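User: Structure please.
Assistant: Input sequence and predicted structure:
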Amino acid sequence: MDAENDPLFNIRPANLEDTAEIVNLSAELGYPASQTQIRDRLRYLLRRSDHAVYVIECQDGAIAGWIHAYLRWLLISELSAEIGSIMIGETYCRRGLGKRLLQHIEMWSASHGCKSIALYSGMQRDTAHHLYPNIGYSRIKSSWKYERKLTGD
């Protein structure tokens, strides 16, 4: 049975007790951060009504993945949501968990008045590039991302 209808996996709001597992999953997928950094960021996001962080939890309490999305207010477009990150542990890939998290965050987005939801996917994420079109996401453009550090460090 894939996780789409599997009652052994439960989606729930993230909490600070999930910090260690979020750190491990993030590092596994190439986004290393300390427990202090993730805990501080998570604490901040959990207080905001315009952000949502959910985990998908196994029956044994292990976190199989997580998703973070936020409301995106722009002068040039209507209210939308953007997925800041979605991560599924390699042990749990190809079981429908990503799809479930996306569907859950889509409902959260719609409940906040969003007409669309978007995400960015790294060029190296071939598996994700096959998933998104299969569940209704359209590739709308390619772009470059630029960054400038604002501190002297």
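The longest strand covers residues 63-74.
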